[in-house]
């Protein structure tokens, strides 16, 4: 009976697995394969070689792009978490329970606008004659407008703007899962509000922080639009470099090798943080 | 460490649309084991939360050894609470949990280690010091929670239905443990439960709460043998409850079951409620026969005794007969009860 | 002290929400700009950019394409997600952990790489770029999410409902369509609407796989590169409005379904 049910289970799961195989696994294999080809003039030389990887290992432009990506994403994760944590805390513990869902919804509002247009809006806000500069000039704080747009600062700012949402949600979920009487027990045993936070609340909310940081890292490092629009394409990040190979130079094999580097980085980060990557309550 | 006495005066707790405590006053003796007993919704958990400082009363006062603690925060009260689900910190080891209170008191590391060792010894779990909470069983967690609460030397220990999550055998074991620890440590224990057997086995004094008010109070023996109200009589065990009118002499009550002599005098011609425990109803001529003839309707053998129901017209009497008795369904019997065993109680009215 | 703590919280929350909502507010406000540039000062209100938006056939077509791709890919993601979640939860096949891992893997890969991979694969197979490919791309990125959402919604209590139905003689088809799906309706709606929302605004995969028929994000992108005007604000605000409607719909439907089951 059980054997039959297992077989039926596989039948139901089959279509989804097939789709995953065809639309995901196969293309990934294709990427790996392509990374071992070479671009020769206008055609693809299909003899397998590690040329592209040699390029990656030696080309300083590529190294710089990788470094830039890690720095930008690192800053993004850092500031998103920093801004999101107090916000999540306030929503979880200072907002009346019936309003919490609504306030969370408000936090997520930017998600509902078009990503492309939203990046563009930041460009306008940060522009020389945009809202920020005009306000600062109007208040007499600066004389000439400052360059905010098309800088690393702009990219990180726009990223943080988006990813604060993600971390707020995950940290909030983690905070709410803390059993109510743990802080009570701590107080009962003489803990001050500060100690309750540092010894009980903060440690138990770390899963939420880790999940949020991980999601932010994965999504940001592969993001092409924001650095391109808001950062003006001025700083070369990994996605930018990849797209350059594809659109301007038509060098698919090199692009494929870069794509794999991206995959490996994400996989490495996952392996390092896997232990903490669960929002389930530890019993 | 000797226990403190607690005085609660006219405690009221009003929530929107619901009065959890309606003027509760009581005195708890230093070093005693007091059980607050009641059904759900009786206000017992609220009372405990107020004693612990987690809830502020709407009005009324709480003093510990004469000191007014009504508005004092939990961290500064001489009380500690053992929560219903133990509230052990999942990200810390057993040792870290137990030592937490000492850490908050800024005790030195060495000192802490010694005391934690002693506390764990007292509850018989010295070997679990470095284990994680998740690896412990329910009974073990209960004892860790106890150790954690006692190590800070509270003058009052508050327990919120601590044995509810344990199975029957474990519960009995833990009851013995609690008694032993209480005798060793000397702290005042205030224990909340809905289980009357647990209350009787542990308490020096039982306080019965009903709808936010004290219904009855006394030692287990007092409450069982001399209940003040019909509610208390029913809550502490099986009981036969019958209404009647007091006769002119004041010592007997005319009821639908017959003329019943009662243990204490009452106003002549007053309407009263009488409570009789099943085990005090005697079969045969030796019991006085003042309850008349009844027919045996049901009999269940429960091991130590028989649970027997007798009927007459549309009345039922519940009896508890010794192991050796034998009755058959349909058998006619004469029943009686001695006056000392029929108690006048306050009816539900 | 308590009052101070409270007001610090409020100040912080206000600052952060200001930060979060500033671009969105700026976007919406300047979509009603009367002059050309969506920059201060505000010279509206005017609907000229909305008129321009709907007069722009490129935009309108792109909008329609996005809707179609969104609905179709969301439908298939939800369907496949449901079948696999149901199969896994109710039949517990051997190797369930492997299946779950396999279905969730795409979540760990950047859209950039997925889009790129699909593009070169299509190239190898000499398949031309098209909206069909975009739809397929969106199915693969939303399938893991739909699967995860629906799996988490399948509780054991609901399984007893299905067992009872079988006991009373229902065959698998009836069990699935008359018992499992209605009980799971809130989850199905959530999965569908989330998939739709993610597909609707997705850029990079669509960029790799679309040809001349483009989706809205791509059209907006192209227009942005050529000129700066408030028409894109109107487009962004429209996207925002549609998302709000979709999510409100989800919420209302969810409540209605829950109330209906509560009444029963």
Fold and architecture overview:
- The complex is a heterotrimer of chains A (283), B (349) and C (264).
- By secondary structure, chain A is mostly helical.
- Chain A has one domain: MetI-like fold (Orthogonal Bundle).
- Chain A contains 12 helices and 2 strands.
- Chain A is globular.
- Chain B has 349 residues and is an alpha+beta fold.
- Chain B has helices spanning 44-52, 94-104, 109-122, 138-150, 168-185, 196-202, 220-225, 230-236; strands at 6-15, 18-28, 33-37, 59-64, 67-68, 79-82, 156-160, 188-193, 205-210, 213-218, 240-246, 252-255, 258-261, 271-276, 281-283, 292-301, 305-312, 315-322, 332-337, 342-345.
- In chain B, strands 6-7-8-3-9-10 form a 6-stranded mixed β-sheet, sandwiched between helices. Chain B has a 5-stranded antiparallel β-sheet with strand order 13-12-11-14-20, covered by helices on one side. Chain B has a 5-stranded antiparallel β-sheet with strand order 15-19-16-17-18, with no helix packed on it.
- Chain C has helices at residues 2-30, 48-55, 57-91, 96-104, 111-124, 131-153, 156-167, 172-200, 204-209, 216-226, 231-263.
- The model of chain C has no long low-confidence stretch (mean pLDDT 85).
- Chain C has a single domain, classed as Orthogonal Bundle (MetI-like fold), CATH 1.10.3720.
- Chain C is built from 11 helices and no strands.
- Chains in contact: A-B, A-C.
- Chain A binds chain B through residues 179, 181-182, 184-192, 195, 199-200, 203-204, 282-283, and chain B through 52-54, 73-76, 79-81, 83, 85, 87, 89-91, 100-101, 104-105, 134, 148-149, 152.
Supply the key terms:
heterotrimer; B: 349 residues; alpha+beta; Rossmann fold; OB fold (Dihydrolipoamide Acetyltransferase, E2P); 2 domains; 6-stranded mixed β-sheet; 5-stranded antiparallel β-sheet; 8 helices; 35% strand; C: 264 residues; mainly alpha; MetI-like fold; 79% helix; globular
Helical content of chain A (DSSP H or I, runs of 4+): over 70%
Question: Regarding quaternary structure, how should these chains be classified?
Answer: heterotrimer
| Main beta sheet strand tally, sense and closure of chain A | 2 strands, antiparallel
The number of domains of chain A is 1
Mean pLDDT of chain C: 85
CATH architecture of chain A: Orthogonal Bundle
CATH-derived topology of chain A: MetI-like fold
Structural class of chain C: mainly alpha
**Estimated share of beta-strand residues of chain A:** under 5%
CATH superfamily of chain A: MetI-like
Straight-line N-to-C gap of chain C: 50 Å
CATH classification class of chain A? Mainly Alpha
Order of strands side by side in the largest beta sheet of chain A?
1-2
Name of the CATH superfamily of chain C: MetI-like
Number of alpha- plus pi-helical segments of chain A? 12
pLDDT averaged residue by residue of chain A: 87
The helix fraction of chain C, in percent, is over 70%
State the name of the first-level CATH class of chain C. Answer: Mainly Alpha
Shape, per Cα inertia axes of chain C: globular
């Amino acid at each position: 009976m059980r054997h039959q049910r297992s077989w039926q289970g596989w039948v139901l799961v089959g279509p989804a697995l097939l789709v995953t195989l065809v639309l995901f696994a196969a293309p990934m294999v294709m990427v790996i394969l392509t990374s071992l080809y070479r671009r020769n003039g206008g055609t693809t030389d299909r003899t397998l070689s590690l040329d592209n990887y040699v390029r990656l290992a030696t080309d300083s432009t590529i190294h710089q792009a990788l470094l830039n990506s890690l720095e930008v994403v690192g800053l993004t994760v850092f500031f998103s978490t920093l801004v999101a944590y107090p916000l999540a805390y306030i929503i979880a513990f200072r907002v009346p329970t019936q309003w919490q869902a609504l306030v969370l919804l408000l936090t997520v509002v930017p998600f509902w606008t078009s990503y492309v247009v939203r990046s563009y809006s930041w460009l306008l806000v940060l522009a020389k004659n945009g809202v920020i500069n005009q306000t600062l000039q109007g208040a007499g704080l600066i004389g000439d407008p400052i360059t905010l747009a098309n800088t690393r600062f702009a990219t990180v700012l726009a990223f943080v703007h988006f990813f604060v949402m993600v971390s707020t949600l995950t940290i909030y979920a983690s905070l709410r899962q803390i059993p109510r009487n743990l802080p009570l027990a701590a107080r009962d045993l003489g803990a001050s509000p500060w100690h309750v936070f540092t010894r009980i609340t903060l440690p138990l909310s770390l899963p939420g922080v880790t999940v949020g940081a991980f999601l932010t890292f994965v999504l940001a490092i592969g993001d092409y639009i924001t650095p391109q629009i808001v950062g003006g394409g001025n700083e070369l990040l990994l996605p930018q470099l990849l797209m350059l190979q594809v659109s301007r130079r038509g060098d698919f094999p090199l692009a494929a090798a870069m794509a794999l580097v991206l995959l490996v980085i994400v996989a490495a980060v996952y392996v390092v943080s896997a232990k903490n990557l669960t929002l389930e309550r530890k019993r | 460490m000797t226990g403190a006495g607690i005085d609660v005066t006219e405690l009221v707790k009003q929530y929107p649309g619901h009065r959890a405590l309606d003027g509760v006053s009581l005195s708890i003796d230093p070093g005693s084991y007091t059980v607050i007993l009641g059904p759900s919704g009786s206000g017992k958990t609220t009372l405990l939360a107020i004693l612990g400082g987690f809830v502020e009363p709407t009005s009324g006062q709480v003093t510990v050894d004469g000191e007014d603690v009504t508005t004092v925060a939990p961290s500064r009260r001489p009380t500690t609470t053992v929560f219903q689900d133990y509230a052990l910190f999942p990200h810390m080891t057993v040792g870290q949990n137990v030592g937490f209170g000492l850490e908050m008191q800024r005790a030195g590391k060495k000192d802490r280690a010694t005391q934690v060792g002693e506390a764990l010894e007292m509850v018989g779990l010295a070997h679990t010091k470095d284990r994680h909470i998740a690896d412990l069983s329910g009974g073990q967690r209960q004892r860790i929670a106890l150790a954690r609460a006692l190590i800070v030397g509270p003058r009052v220990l508050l327990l919120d239905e601590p044995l509810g999550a344990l199975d029957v055998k474990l519960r009995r074991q833990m009851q013995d443990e609690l008694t032993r620890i209480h005798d060793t440590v000397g702290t005042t224990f205030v224990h909340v439960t809905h289980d009357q057997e647990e209350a009787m086995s542990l308490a020096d004094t039982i306080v019965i709460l009903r709808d936010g008010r004290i219904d009855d109070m006394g030692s287990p023996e007092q409450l069982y043998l001399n209940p003040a109200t019909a509610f208390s009589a029913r809550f502490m065990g099986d009981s036969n409850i019958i209404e009647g009118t007091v006769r002119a002499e004041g010592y007997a009550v005319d009821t639908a079951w017959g003329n019943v002599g009662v243990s204490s005098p009452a106003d002549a011609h007053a309407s009263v409620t009488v409570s009789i425990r099943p085990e005090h109803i005697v079969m045969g001529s030796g019991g006085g026969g003042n309850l008349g003839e009844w027919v045996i309707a049901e009999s269940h053998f429960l091991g130590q005794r028989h649970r027997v129901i007798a009927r007459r017209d549309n009345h039922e009497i519940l009896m508890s007969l010794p192991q050796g008795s034998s009755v058959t369904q349909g058998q006619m019997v004469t029943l009686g009860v001695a006056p000392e065993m029929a108690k006048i109680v306050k009816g539900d009215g | 002290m308590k009052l101070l703590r409270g007001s610090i919280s409020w100040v912080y929350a206000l600052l952060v929400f200001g930060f979060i909502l500033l671009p969105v507010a700026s976007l919406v406000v300047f979509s009603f700009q009367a002059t050309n540039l969506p920059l201060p000062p505000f010279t509206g209100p005017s609907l000229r950019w909305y008129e321009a938006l709907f007069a722009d056939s490129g935009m309108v077509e792109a909008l329609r394409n996005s809707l179609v791709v969104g609905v179709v890919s969301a439908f298939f993601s939800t369907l496949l997600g449901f079948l696999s979640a149901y199969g896994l939860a109710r039949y517990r096949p051997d190797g369930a952990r492997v299946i779950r891992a396999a279905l969730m893997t795409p979540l760990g890969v950047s859209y950039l790489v997925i889009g790129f991979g699909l593009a070169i694969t299509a190239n190898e197979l000499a398949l031309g770029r098209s909206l069909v490919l975009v739809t397929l791309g969106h199915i693969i990125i939303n399938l893991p999410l739909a699967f995860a959402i629906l799996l988490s919604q399948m509780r054991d209590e609901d399984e007893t409902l299905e067992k009872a139905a079988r006991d009373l003689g229902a065959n698998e088809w009836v069990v699935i369509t008359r018992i499992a799906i209605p009980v799971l309706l809130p989850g199905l709606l959530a999965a569908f609407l989330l998939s739709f929302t993610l597909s609707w605004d997705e850029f990079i995969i669509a960029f790799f796989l679309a040809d001349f028929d483009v989706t809205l994000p791509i059209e907006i992108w192209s227009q942005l590169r050529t000129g700066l005007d408030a028409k894109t604000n109107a487009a962004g605000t429209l996207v925002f409005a549609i998302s709000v409607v979709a999510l409100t719909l989800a919420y209302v439907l969810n409540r209605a379904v829950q109330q209906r089951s509560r009444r029963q």
